[in-house]
Amino acid sequence: MKYKENINIVLYIFVVFILSSCIFLLYFKDKWLAIILVSCFFIYLILKRKIDLFIILTLFFLIPIINNIFYYNINLSNLEEVRIISLTNYGGTGEIKGRKFYLSGEFNDLKLGDKILANIELNKDINIEKGIIGEVKVDNYEKLKGDIRSKVYRLREDIFNNIKEKLGSRRAALITSMAFGYTEFLDREDTSNMKNLGVLHAVSVSGLHMVLIYSLLKKICGDKMAPIVAIVYVIFTGCATSTLRSYIMLLCLSLAVPFRRSYNPLSGLSLAGIIIILYKPYSIFEIGFQLSFLSTLGIILFNKKINKYLYKLPKSIREGTSISLSSQVFTFPFLILYFREFSLGFLLGNLILMPFINAIVILGNIMALTFNIKIIFNYLAFICYYFTVVLDLVSEKLIYILPKILYLNEIIAISYIILLITFYFYKKGYKNIIYFNLTIFVYAYFIFYSPFPKIEYYKDGVMSISFKGERSVVAIKDGVDLDKYKIISFAEKEYEDFKKVIINDKFEIEKINKDILIKSKYKTYLIQLSKKKNNYNYDIIDCKYSNYFKIIILDERILVFN
């Protein structure tokens, strides 16, 4: 009984860490709503007469708050060391003292992972969901000597270039992206095909990669050395959230036997979440964190049950099917909310393609280890070539026979979540929860009728406008797929050349260069999408780094949801 309580405490702490991080974000948007929500949670604990748990969880609730305050409150000098973590035409993203900043300036001679000593000017503009402190303008800089982290980036680049010389750029990108998440040169068509086949997770380092490599290391190095050597792979792949999560869970599993403890995957998952949130306070808002933990939770809770229902199938098909289906139980609505699309061929894609992908993952990592032994490296590259050829042939056939990717509106995701919540509490004995499903109709009313003017922006360069049953989509950029967004937004009209839209003779939505102007009789707002500075004398809503946002226009104000 004591063991079970300990597991529950770890799970409770993880839930409290999630709640605390969300409250910290919400506090910046609506202080009183944040206070009400956290009060309801702790009042519930008191009413349940869990005083000991109340005291413990109150202390743990404060830890992420303090951690976030420490992360976002930092003083910088005019001269700082900056790590380059992404590059674009207009700047990039960097790390200073372990914090993330947007960078502006010219970085033509720099590569990912490089470290510079720069004269900087900070414009503090906190974005909690992305862990961004603000924007740093770099006037001039001096490139510093490479450290371990930058050498890891260069090693991955060197491996890519060596494979490229032998197999070409495309196959080199496929092998290195699947093997250790080096996606910088991955072809858009390959990414699209992987998405259509439901195996996009294979080209970014996931828990699957960690399990494969860890299993291989156990056979080569033994149980004691495998956890130590595996941490090198975690660093080599860039410490992706899913890899860290998987490593921590595997480490808990390995330590359970020598410490004479039973391993519970739910407590291992919770502990991994606690450590990652402490390491990166903003990680909970990243899609990688959410999908990794939700898919693992689905596997923990439903994999064995689905496996039993499929007992008549051959073992390999049964296990592959149960893992694929169970991993989708909780990730399905989030995939729709983030991407507005879902692959109907994910099951066949995973069953048929993953054996080839797993082989490439293992061979690619052995190639990294034998990088300086050219005979072995070239031989492995030769084998990988034929695996990619087979992968191409099979993928081509699957794309031809499988249904096309399905475009879905957020109402599908919200309805699915409401049904899941209803089912859970109904099974717990709360029969009246069945009426909770009525909220689907309320939500659908606001989606289809939209009593207030509503604007939704999508990163592809499309904007949907809806008001009192009238819905339309407009193209902000050239060459966008308006048909896709007509399906997603249930739009009846489309405008390829958008300049100005008038809503109910009260509101005007106008395009100014790359930005959007919203005019009402009370106020004018500028939705900034461009990266350049502007001199407009309006209230500016900075959305230049947003992939998606929703705006609801009220009479005297507008509400923005990212």
Automatic annotation (TrEMBL):
Alphabetized Pfam families for the sequence: Competence
PROSITE patterns linked to this entry: PROKAR_LIPOPROTEIN (PS51257)
Intracellular or extracellular location(s): Cell membrane
Protein name per its UniProtKB record: ComEC/Rec2 family competence protein
Entries under NCBIfam families matching the protein: ComEC_N-term (TIGR00360)
Coiled-coil spans in chain: none
Native species: Clostridium gallinarum
Annotated ranges, domain ComEC/Rec2-related protein: 178-425
Lineage top rank: taxon: Bacteria
Membrane topology classification: Multi-pass membrane protein
Keyword list, A-Z: Cell membrane, Membrane, Transmembrane, Transmembrane helix
Parts of the chain that traverse the membrane: 7-26, 32-47, 54-74, 198-217, 229-256, 284-302, 322-339, 346-369, 375-394, 406-426, 432-449
